[in-house]
Specification:
The protein is of the alpha/beta class. It has one domain: TIM Barrel. The protein contains 15 helices and 15 strands. It binds 5-hydroxymethyl-3,4-dihydroxypiperidine. The site of 5-hydroxymethyl-3,4-dihydroxypiperidine (IFM) has 8 residues, from loops.
């Protein structure tokens, strides 16, 4: 049995395009994910987020579920295409929607943890070049300012970006994510402009709010070399640079690792970095969000790797990604809770005093509804408990971890996989929009309401 500290935040997380639906309502304009979903063959099961969990209309019902779960915070994202329908214009109906959501959360005693960007770039900005264009970062700061003015008095924590690695490299290098481009030089420019957008957005929020809790959420990669050989260790370091250092360096230390620039010099001269950018990017943050699911193992390759997963890592052509051992989740991901403890303790050693939160953690399984009308999901329960325990072990080792958000409150639209992969601790019947409790939801309810893991 383990008791977490009083005041520890237990939350659940979602993202706008994954749960909202209502893509044509109240002045929302298309996002890159609408375009991706409309492109044949891009979403494995042919579904889209057009209806998803219909949370746009059912948010009160979902907040009632969160209240029953006993969570103290809801991590959600606002949809940029609902707020800024074209450059320079503000869609008040979109702002009002999130204002009502935030009020309803506060009324239920649930702290709003708001993410400004969880991948739904307005399509008109992609048409103008998307994240590889510097201008997108300035447009993001304008959107952040609008949201800060509208909700700054009520939001608990402002997160600029969710997993910029996915936005840059799955979106522009590998192409599995929207906008589906496969252009390594562009993906590095996208990464830099996402960093810049983070800094500019925090500056914009700072200009309109007297004080606020600021954060960014990174999916840092737990990378292990296949052996102790110098080549395999170097391969792992290369992956960590383009997976992790590319964000941590500029955002928290004000510099890109020179070796990262060297690793990618055959792809890009990084001329998109302008004087003063790194000072803008390095803004103080109140809390660093870590999203953690699984680990990565690599070895040095003897021939260039270009296809599949390798395509998502610019500058890592001579690195081979290896299958992971053990029982894999429905995503094919390994279950290694100890890596979560390691990452949290490493972050706390590297950035002493920086508050940390696990802003996403969870697992997809092929759930079934039983005859009793419920979902019995022992694998998800075991995953949840093992990872909450891993967070507890990091706290024991002195890491200042202040919260854990289960991904996800609901089954939802899992990007390139569509609706077929279920991460929810509460099931969604997409035909009826019924919410159905899973055992993992009940297990999390016990943890969230008591602070005890048993
Ligand atoms: O569903 C995603 C989420 O949008 C970002 N983090 C990982 C989750 C599971 O793939």
């Amino acid at each position: 049995m383990r008791k977490f500290p009083d005041g520890f935040t237990w939350g659940t997380a979602t993202a706008s395009y994954q749960v909202e639906g209502a893509i044509h309502e109240d002045g929302r304009v298309p996002s890159i994910w609408d375009t991706m979903c409309a492109t044949p063959g891009k979403i494995k099961d042919g579904t889209s987020g057009a209806f998803a969990c219909d949370q746009y209309h059912r948010y009160k019902q979902d907040i009632a579920l969160m209240k029953e779960l006993g969570v103290s915070s809801y991590r959600f994202s606002t949809a940029w295409p609902r707020i800024i329908p074209s450059t320079g214009k503000v869609n008040q109906s979109g702002v009002d929607h999130y204002s009502r959501l935030v009020d309803a959360l506060l009324e239920a005693g649930i702290k709003p943890t708001l993410t400004l960007y969880h991948w739904d770039l307005p399509q008109y900005l992609e048409d103008a070049g998307g994240w590889p264009e510097r201008d997108t970062a300035y447009r993001f700061a304008e959107y952040a300012e609008v949201m800060g003015k509208a909700l700054g008095d009520r939001v608990d924590t402002w997160t600029t970006l969710n997993e910029p690695w996915c936005a840059a490299f799955l979106g522009y290098a590998d192409g599995e994510h929207a906008p589906g481009r496969q252009d390594h030089p562009a993906s590095l420019a996208a990464a830099h402009h996402l960093n810049l957008a983070h800094g500019l957005a925090l500056q914009a929020l700072g200009a309109v709010l007297e004080s606020f809790r600021s954060s960014v959420t990174l999916n840092l990669h737990a990378v292990y070399p296949a052996s102790k050989s110098g080549e395999d260790i170097a391969a792992a370091e290369r992956i960590k640079r383009v997976g992790n250092e590319i964000w941590l360096g500029p955002m928290l230390e004000g510099a890109y690792d020179p070796q990262l620039l060297a690793d990618t010099s055959h792809i890009s001269d990084w001329a998109f970095i302008q004087d003063g950018d790194l000072a803008v990017i390095r803004q103080p943050i109140s809390v660093l969000g870590l999203n953690y699911y699984s680990t990565t193992a690599v070895q040095a390759a003897d021939h260039p790797q270009y296809s599949g997963w390798a395509g998502a890592w610019p500058g890592a052509e001579m690195v081979e990604f290896l299958p992971r051992p053990g029982a894999l989740t429905a995503m094919g991901w390994d279950q290694t809770p100890s890596a979560l403890t390691e990452m949290l303790t490493e972050l706390s050693a590297r950035y002493p005093g920086l508050e940390l939160m696990v802003t996403e953690n969870g697992s997809a399984w092929d759930d079934l509804v039983s005859n009793d009308g419920l979902v019995h999901d022992p694998d998800r329960v075991a995953f949840l408990k093992a990872h909450v325990e891993a967070v507890g072990q990091a706290i024991d080792k002195g890491a200042p971890v202040s919260g854990y958000f289960a991904w996800s409150l609901l089954d939802n639209f899992e990007w390139a996989w569509g609706l077929s992969k279920r991460f929810g601790i509460i099931r969604v019947d997409y035909d009826t929009q019924e919410r159905i409790w899973k055992d993992s939801g009940r297990a999390y309810q016990r943890i969230a309401t008591t602070g005890i893991l048993d």
